[in-house]
Amino acid sequence: MQRIVPCPKASTPLRPLHDRDASRQLEQRLAATLPPHTLMRRAGLAVARLAMAWQPHAQRIVVLAGGGNNGGDGLVAAARLAQDWPERDVAVWWLGDPERLPDDARWAWQHARAANLTWLQAAPDSPPDLVIDALLGLGLDRPVQGTTLAALRWLQACPAPTLCVDLPSGLDPNTGHWWADTPAQPVAARATLSLLTLKPGLFTGLGRAVAGETIWFDDLGAQADPTTAAAWLVTSAGWPDAAALRADHASHKGSRGDVLVLGGALPAAHAGVGMGGAALLAARAALRAGAGRVYVALVGEANQIPPWDAGQPALMLRSAAAALDSDLPERATVVAGCGGGPGMATLLDTVLARSPRLVLDADALNALAGRTDPDPLAQRRARRWWTVLTPHPLEAARLLRTDTASVQRDRLAAARTLAERWHAVVVLKGSGSVVAAPGLTPRVVASGSGWLATAGSGDTLAGLLGARLSALPWPAPPEDLLAAVADTVALHGTLPEHWPHRWPPTASDLLP
Ligand SMILES: NC(=O)C1=CN([C@@H]2O[C@H](COP(=O)(O)OP(=O)(O)OC[C@H]3O[C@@H](n4cnc5c(N)ncnc54)[C@H](O)[C@@H]3O)[C@@H](O)[C@H]2O)[C@@H](O)CC1
């Protein structure tokens, strides 16, 4: 059994994420090679052991079990707990119908009936010390209904720590969509033990919010085929390597890569609304991440441009017009959009046509979404130029001409579609950011927290991406570009880990 740590100290390899169909195929293949019920026996044992390791002092344990094989895992765990920890009071609230049980679940039910368990007909009168959630697992693909919904309502509101078997009940394994008409966020501490495979829905959409702080994984002895993975999970960021930068004695500022941040509409340029801070945040992040020279091109008249950034005087400020009148668009990695306002629409053509390394964020994405020509990025693809799009769900919805709910409903599919549609590497931001590139298996980033949901956080990410792209050897295979972008998103997700206070950080607090 392994613990999946979103931000480990040491570098960890990518992990494959398998969806419902791939997990079921693996289960069937493996079950055919083993004596009957072996997998369920292993699953129940793993659940019982983890329950006692996680909540060793729990005396009263309630196992909430559904009528499918997920419930079967719970029944085996209940019997095992009663057998191996006889001093505990183990009760089962089972919602199955003996007439309609799958084979494994029938065996588990008969096995559990022979054990020393209390059988509940309804929710317990008072909260136990521990709940084991085995109501719904891989089989859920439609809205939860009937008595199962009533039980799920109790589960979500129960103040007892809860160990979820395979998946939290109510969560879609493929997408992290929440299938129930009840709040997704549980009130109590949670852990989830994913069985056989790790599922994408645990790490994106509502997965992180519902599954709890700790996700455990037991492969039950299976070797999942990585070529059938729906996505790869990124749990560590190996960049930037400050020690390597320091040790490179022969380097100079020109060899570290240049970044041009284009955005930050000044109040006079944008009907009294100033967004200069967004560009400065992006630029400061790029500098801190190791870019040799960082230029900030603000959208406004030359005489309105502040002479310097007092917080980071190493930044070089100028007007957008002056920057575009130089060779910077060709020479530097361009990060366009951060606070650029509607003025980005007139600047977009220039960077699309001139900048081989380009990150489009915020208002640049809105400008792109507003284009009526069929394929504004076709030329870039033909030249194998790099384009990275960093939409949050609303910007993604504009680019896809749909609504935010549809994007969030299946974030992996939305990111994949965007990547194909725009011939770009796409970072669909949000809980469990998805990084997709045309023709490649997408990556889901495990790091991040609610502290990143603050103004300016996306600008910081855009700046980090600018620095990362400027440091990447050119040309690079598409796989390397995807990996570099995912690595940077993972790094951004780890920034809140270093914040020492109990009040939440601002985006500038989180600058690397
Ligand atoms: N068969 C085996 O040997 C193994 C099974 N495993 C477990 O089996 C699970 C999958 O089992 P199943 O395919 O039976 O699926 P589930 O047990 O997840 O769900 C099926 C049950 O839920 C009910 N249900 C489904 N959708 C519902 C809805 N919207 N509202 C109300 N009730 C609903 C169905 O009527 C059925 O009783 C995995 O998640 C895992 O926990 C794994 O442990 C691996 C081994």
UniProtKB/TrEMBL annotation:
<dbReference type="GO" id="GO:0005524">
    <property type="term" value="F:ATP binding"/>
</dbReference>
<feature type="binding site">
    <location>
        <position position="459"/>
    </location>
    <ligand>
        <name>(6S)-NADPHX</name>
    </ligand>
</feature>
<dbReference type="InterPro" id="IPR004443">
    <property type="entry name" value="YjeF_N_dom"/>
</dbReference>
<keyword id="KW-0479">Metal-binding</keyword>
<keyword id="KW-0511">Multifunctional enzyme</keyword>
<feature type="binding site">
    <location>
        <begin position="137"/>
        <end position="143"/>
    </location>
    <ligand>
        <name>(6S)-NADPHX</name>
    </ligand>
</feature>
<dbReference type="GO" id="GO:0016301">
    <property type="term" value="F:kinase activity"/>
</dbReference>
<keyword id="KW-0418">Kinase</keyword>
<feature type="binding site">
    <location>
        <begin position="69"/>
        <end position="73"/>
    </location>
    <ligand>
        <name>(6S)-NADPHX</name>
    </ligand>
</feature>
<keyword id="KW-0547">Nucleotide-binding</keyword>
<feature type="domain" description="YjeF C-terminal">
    <location>
        <begin position="236"/>
        <end position="512"/>
    </location>
</feature>
<keyword id="KW-0456">Lyase</keyword>
<comment type="similarity">
    <text>In the N-terminal section; belongs to the NnrE/AIBP family.</text>
</comment>
<keyword id="KW-0413">Isomerase</keyword>
<feature type="binding site">
    <location>
        <position position="133"/>
    </location>
    <ligand>
        <name>K(+)</name>
    </ligand>
</feature>
<dbReference type="GO" id="GO:0052856">
    <property type="term" value="F:NAD(P)HX epimerase activity"/>
</dbReference>
<dbReference type="InterPro" id="IPR030677">
    <property type="entry name" value="Nnr"/>
</dbReference>
<feature type="binding site">
    <location>
        <position position="70"/>
    </location>
    <ligand>
        <name>K(+)</name>
    </ligand>
</feature>
<dbReference type="GO" id="GO:0046496">
    <property type="term" value="P:nicotinamide nucleotide metabolic process"/>
</dbReference>
<keyword id="KW-0630">Potassium</keyword>
<dbReference type="GO" id="GO:0046872">
    <property type="term" value="F:metal ion binding"/>
</dbReference>
<feature type="domain" description="YjeF N-terminal">
    <location>
        <begin position="23"/>
        <end position="228"/>
    </location>
</feature>
<feature type="binding site">
    <location>
        <begin position="429"/>
        <end position="433"/>
    </location>
    <ligand>
        <name>AMP</name>
    </ligand>
</feature>
<dbReference type="InterPro" id="IPR000631">
    <property type="entry name" value="CARKD"/>
</dbReference>
<keyword id="KW-0808">Transferase</keyword>
<dbReference type="GO" id="GO:0110051">
    <property type="term" value="P:metabolite repair"/>
</dbReference>
<feature type="binding site">
    <location>
        <position position="166"/>
    </location>
    <ligand>
        <name>(6S)-NADPHX</name>
    </ligand>
</feature>
<feature type="binding site">
    <location>
        <position position="458"/>
    </location>
    <ligand>
        <name>AMP</name>
    </ligand>
</feature>
<keyword id="KW-0067">ATP-binding</keyword>
<comment type="similarity">
    <text>Belongs to the NnrE/AIBP family.</text>
</comment>
<dbReference type="Pfam" id="PF03853">
    <property type="entry name" value="YjeF_N"/>
</dbReference>
<feature type="binding site">
    <location>
        <position position="278"/>
    </location>
    <ligand>
        <name>(6S)-NADPHX</name>
    </ligand>
</feature>
<feature type="binding site">
    <location>
        <position position="339"/>
    </location>
    <ligand>
        <name>(6S)-NADPHX</name>
    </ligand>
</feature>
<keyword id="KW-0520">NAD</keyword>
<feature type="binding site">
    <location>
        <position position="169"/>
    </location>
    <ligand>
        <name>K(+)</name>
    </ligand>
</feature>
<dbReference type="InterPro" id="IPR036652">
    <property type="entry name" value="YjeF_N_dom_sf"/>
</dbReference>
<feature type="binding site">
    <location>
        <position position="392"/>
    </location>
    <ligand>
        <name>(6S)-NADPHX</name>
    </ligand>
</feature>
<dbReference type="InterPro" id="IPR029056">
    <property type="entry name" value="Ribokinase-like"/>
</dbReference>
<dbReference type="Pfam" id="PF01256">
    <property type="entry name" value="Carb_kinase"/>
</dbReference>
<dbReference type="GO" id="GO:0052855">
    <property type="term" value="F:ADP-dependent NAD(P)H-hydrate dehydratase activity"/>
</dbReference>
<comment type="function">
    <text>Catalyzes the dehydration of the S-form of NAD(P)HX at the expense of ADP, which is converted to AMP. Together with NAD(P)HX epimerase, which catalyzes the epimerization of the S- and R-forms, the enzyme allows the repair of both epimers of NAD(P)HX, a damaged form of NAD(P)H that is a result of enzymatic or heat-dependent hydration.</text>
</comment>
<comment type="subunit">
    <text>Homotetramer.</text>
</comment>
